[in-house]
Fold this protein.
Amino acid sequence: MRYESTRGAAPLLGFADTLLTGLAADGGLYLPERWPALEGLPEPAGPYAELATAVMAPFVGDDIDRDELARLVAGAYAGFDHPEVVPLRPLEDGLWLLELFHGPTLAFKDMALQVVGRLLDRELAHRDERATVIVATSGDTGSAAIEACRGRDRLDIVVLHPHGRVSDVQRRQMTTVHDHNVWNLAVEGTFDDCQDLVKALFADAVAREKLRLTAMNSINWARVLAQIPYYVRCAALLGGAGPVDVTVPTGNFGNIYAAWGARSCGAGLGRLVVASNRNDILTRTLETGVMATEEVHATLSPAMDIQVSSNVERLLYELHDRDGTAVAEAMRGFRESGSLRLAPAAWARLRAAFAGERVDDERTLATIAEVYREHSVLIDPHTAVGVAVARTHRSADRPMVVAATAHPAKFPDAVEAATGVSPPVPGRLAAALEAPEHYDVVPADLGSLRAALESRFA
Ligand SMILES: *Cc1c(COP(=O)(O)O)cnc(C)c1O
C-alpha cells in the first residue's frame, strides 16, 4: 500500500514513512492511494484488537508483519477498562451510543493515540533512532499524548500547556504522570502562545534536527487509520438487513473521516452526520457549498471549538477525483481569503454522503438533562451535541449510532449543571486527582524554550 499527498506534488510513501513524516513535503496530507476492500474479517463480536488488526493490516502492508501488528494493537487496547473496548449501548429505539471513552484519559483520542505511540516507538526502534514528540495542548490532547508515549523506549514527550489556563482535572491528568520520558511545561501565556512556540520550533530546521522533533497531531494518517475499525465493528454488529447511519461530534473532522474511510472500504454505513457546536464551519459548508472561516467561540464542548478542520482536505481530494493540483489551488485560495467555494459536482457528492447540524450550549444542556431523565444515562457535552443531532436525523428504518467521545466525568460542571448529578469519577481519574504533580514553568519565549529543550535532550 502506498500513500499519496492531497496536493499531488510529494513523493509516494509507504506506511512507515508516512507515519514518521506527518505533513507531506508539498503541504498536503497523506492518504492511501486506494481504499482496500474489507476481507476475511474475524467475527465482529469477538476480541476488538483482533478485528482492529485485521482492518488495519492492508493499510500497513509489508511494513510491519501481521503478528507484530497484532501484538502492538492488543497492547494498545489492553489498558481499556471495558472488556469490549468500544461497547455499543442501546439508548432508545433505533439509537445507539458507541462508547469511545474507556481508555486511559477517558476520551476518544486514546483510541488512536494508544496505537500511534506504539507504532512510532516500534518504527524508531527498527531504524535505531529516537524522537521527541512535542505537543501544545489547550487541555485534552496533552494527556492522551502523554498516556500514549509514557514509558516507551524510543520516545520522549514534551507537552506545553498554558500556565493557569487549563482546568485542574486536565492539568492533573498530565502532571501526575511521572515516567522519565514525560516532561510537562507550563508556559506563561495562552494556548495560542504554546501553539506558536511549537510551530516555531518545527519551522527551525536546526532545532528540529537537533532535538529530533516529531508530531502526533491529528493530520497524521495513522490516527485516522486507528479510528476506522470501530465503525467497521458497529456496522457489522447492527447492520444485518441494511446500512447503519452514524452521527459524530466533530471538530477536526478526523473521527468522521474515519467513518468515511470505513464506508469506502465497504462497511455497511449509510449517512454520515456531522454534529457541530456553535463552531459550525462544516455544517455551513454542507448547507451553502462554501467553506468560510469565522472566529472561534468557546462552548461547553471545547474539543470541538475549532475553526479550520484540517482533515477536510482529505475528503476534498476525494471529492475532486484525486486531483492534487485542484486541491492545492483551492487550499491556497482558502488560506488567502478564508473562504473556499466547492465545485457543484463536489458539493453534490458531499451532500450525498454527509449531513450536518449545529447545536448551541442551551440545547446541549437540555439534551444532557433529557437523556438523564428518560434513560438514567449521564452523557458528556460532546456526546450530547451528537445525540441532539442524531435525534433529528434518524430515519425510521435504519439504526443510528452516535459516537460518544468523552466520559461524563471529564466534564462534570456541564453534566451537573444540566442534571444536578455529579458524575461518578472512575478510579484512574480519581488517582490522578490525588497524586503529586510535576511540571516546570517557562516564559512564552522561543529562546528560553529552545535552551531548556537542548539542555535536556540535545
Ligand atoms: C477531539 C474530540 C472531538 C472531535 O473529534 P475530531 O476528530 O477532531 O472531529 C470530539 N469530542 C471529543 C471529546 C474530543 O476529544
Notes: The pocket of pyridoxal-5'-phosphate is lined by residues 107-109, 140, 218, 249-255, 303-304, 382, 405-406 (CB under 6 Å). The chain has 20 helices and 15 strands. The CA atoms of residues 8 and 458 lie 35 Å apart.
